[in-house]
Amino acid sequence: VQLVESGGGLVQPGSSLRLSCAASGFTFGTYDMRWVRQAPGKGPEWVSSIDSGGDKKYYTNFAKGRFTISRDNAKSTLYLQMNSLKPEDTAVYYCETTHGGISIRGQGTQVTVSS
């Protein structure tokens, strides 16, 4: 089971980024997926979740209206579109799933929002 995030970077406040998470080693289309983030000096923070079929989506309060989670099961890829980014969105973003009762996380992608 492998998850590989990409798409992070250094952007100015108000900018947008699209994160991707390429999955392999398991039947991606049968698993719920989520994005979490971890800011420097803080614990992991849940951002958004999506069910296996992509029909049900959930967001934490700070993500509602700015972030959009989606997935392409044919490509085994999870996405997070982030708009109107703020300095407080600066964090390492991880995609996660629970496989065999164990939480699996990728290596993360750094998002830095700064002027």
Write up what this structure looks like.
By secondary structure, this protein is an all-beta fold. It has strands at 2-6, 9-11, 17-24, 33-38, 45-50, 57-59, 67-72, 77-82, 91-99, 102-105, 109-113. The relative contact order is 0.32.
Note poorly predicted spans.
none
Structural class: mainly beta
SSE sequence, one letter per element: EEEEEEEEEEE
Question: How big is the Rg?
Answer: 13 Å
How many beta-strand elements? Answer: 11
Percent helix: under 10%
Can you count the helices? Answer: 0
The residue-averaged pLDDT reads: 96
Give the oligomeric state of the chains in this entry, treating copies of one chain as homo and distinct chains as hetero. single chain
* Coarse shape: globular
Spatial gap, N to C terminus: 37 Å
Strand content: over 45%
Instruction: Describe the largest sheet.
Output: 7 strands, mixed
Short description, anyone?
The protein has 115 residues and is mainly beta. It has strands at 2-6, 9-11, 17-24, 33-38, 45-50, 57-59, 67-72, 77-82, 91-99, 102-105, 109-113. 0% of the residues lie in helices and 53% in strands.
Keywords, separated by commas or semicolons:
115 residues; mainly beta; seven-stranded mixed sheet; four-stranded antiparallel sheet
Layout of helices and strands:
Blueprint: E1 2-6, E2 9-11, E3 17-24, E4 33-38, E5 45-50, E6 57-59, E7 67-72, E8 77-82, E9 91-99, E10 102-105, E11 109-113
Parallel strand pairs: 2-11
Antiparallel strand pairs: 1-3, 3-8, 4-5, 4-9, 5-6, 7-8, 9-10, 9-11
